[in-house]
Each structure stands twice: as C-alpha cells, then as structure tokens.
Amino acid sequence: MAITEGSKAPRILVAGCGKLGGAIASRLETSATVYGLRRNPDRVPEGIQGIGADLTQPETLSGKLPEGLDIVLYCLTPSSYDEQGYRDAYVTGLANLLEALGGQSLKHLFFVSSSSVYSQDDDSWVDESSPTRPVRFSGEQVLAGEQTALESGHPATIIRYSGIYGPSRRRLLEEVQAGRMNPTKPAPFSNRIHEDDAADAAAHLVNLALSGATLQTCYLASDCEPVRLDEVVDWVRQHTPCAEPKPDARKGGRAGSKRCCNKRLLSTGFQFRYPDFRAGYRGMIDQG
Asked: What is the pLDDT of residue 7?
C-alpha cells in the first residue's frame, strides 16, 4: 500500500512475531510502522520495532502497547502441545491482548488460525462455510480463539492455514528422503501452503483492510491443489535421491481427508507463487 505525501504511516502490531509472524511483519514494514511482540524482542526481523512481552502473563503487557494502532495481527503458536498450551496460545493470550488494548479502535483484527478446525474425513471439499466440528482439543482451542476474535468488538478476519511448508519447514521432504515416510495407497488427501505464500496472503489481506476494502470474516489459505499424500511422496522420490522406506516409516498425518478450497482468497486478487506442491518442493530440492 502506497503512502501519499503528508499521510501518516499505518501502525500495525504483529502479536507473535515468530517464524510466520516475522515474515508477515517484514512484508508490511516497507509501507507501515510495524511492531513485533514476542518474549524475546531482540529476535524480531530487522526494521520491526520489538516489544518484549508474554501474552499469557498480562502484567508483562502493562504500558508496552503503542497507541493509535490500525491493525493487529495475532499469530501465536503453543509453547506446549497439550490442551493448556493450545488454550494459552489461542484463547487466553488473545483475551489478554484485547484487554491490554483498552479503548483502542482498530481498523481490523486478524487471527491466524488453522484448517485443524475441520474434522471432515470423507475426501470432501471444505470452504469457509463448511461445518467446524474439531475432534481434537487442538482444533477445539483454535476454534475458541476464532470466536474470541470475532466477538472482540473490532472488525475481525480469520485466516485458516493448511499445512505450511517451505525452506525453513522441510520435515516432510527430509522424512521422504530419509525413508521415514511411506504412506499407504491411496492415502488421505493433504493440503498445504508454501511459507512464502502464507506470509504473502496475510500481508495481502492486511493491505486490503488498510485500503478500506470490505473483508469477509474468514479466508481459507491453502494452495490450489489438494493431493493425496502418497502422490506427493511418489513425486519427491522421482525428483531427488531417497532412501528405501524403513520398516517403521510413518504412514502419514492425522488430519483426516479433506480438500481445502481457496476460491474466496483468490477472489480478492491474491496470486500464489507456488500454486501446487510441485512448484514448492521443486524449488526446495533445487536449493538443496
């Protein structure tokens, strides 16, 4: 978003300025004043103004938040992967942040969510209007966080990401190469988004909000080709040297079998750099 002469740069807070939040913040800082909140503020990206606080400890927020914020993007991940860890990250932390904002009136609040809120296991397509009935505590707490955002009193948008992968998230690629992944055939459908597209999508929606565009309350952020996991593994084996599958190789994830539809995100004008897994993993393989 261009800033006209004499206008004030938008003020954006990225709460949870880690791997994904930091990448989003870096995309926004060229046209806005961006604050990155995390426990260790020295680890926010260059150009981002660090704020040191722990959102699960509300007293650490006292006097820390800047005034006149236009956008808050909430992007926390659990510090422990039990039910309390998920509740702290997705519900309690957001409630504490909203309380600390006091009477500030935001143009928009964004909440980074997950396709784990869907439990469909029948290969069906899901979109933003599909039923959300998570069967695990992780999805339940993420969904509770969504509701906290939507009931915050601020205009709010949920961004539901499918599995994020990329150069800094190489687990599946490395497991296939090492022979530690050998899914059954046909495997369940899997959904993913490259980390560059994940950050670009959030920055795109933030810039739309700043431009005055009307946003939907939810967007599903996933690439353009849901695909069965065994097809991904077979393609990787064809394009890079891989060890023979080990007897105890993993059969796959626990995310059911569904196909995530990204038509609503595409309708905003967003364009993927990596529209399918081949484009994304091809680049990662070429980079070594």
From this structure: 59
